[in-house]
Amino acid sequence: MNGSNWGSGLSPVTVRFENCVVEANLVGWAIEFAHPNLSGSIDVAGGFTTQTASHGIALYDKAASALGVTFSDHSLLNVSTSSLNCSELNAAKRCPAGAKNVPIALIVRAGNPSVEGQVIFRNVSVWDHRFRPWVQVIGDVRGWQHVTFSSVSVSNPSGCMSNTSLAYGGQPVPAGVINGLEAVKCTKDME
Fold it and tell me: Which residues lie below 8 Å from residue 179, measured CB to CB, with a gap of 6+?
């Protein structure tokens, strides 16, 4: 969903996807350029995403003051299947240096003037067999805010790694801005 032409005088944007299947795409769900103060919501409820070359879920330059984004009761099954990094795939224009090809990516490119965030992952399952983080958060010095992982489970024989080291442009991530990572249910088998 590309909001680059949306003006501040438009009506709220509210979209709900229920029980959708995304299969064999370049990217599963990609939400980009949600500009500040755009009201409304995007909800993805149920369904699953599988066999994507790049991210299963990707948010690029999503302003915290813009519409809320929620993924609930959704499964990611063997996504990000390409051995190429994010910047080497067709989505290169969206991927800054350091971006990896991971199941869930939250990415801000340098120079974005707003604070990013207002994203909820509720009851999301990730099944992955590659040695890599299941989520990567990349930001600038303004970072990400109001990102919540609630009842998230990850199955990976290599364990459950998350990468938030670049969420504030390499600066330490303040407490309370990315919530729930410590409570992610991790299993090393592929249930």
Answer: 147, 148, 149
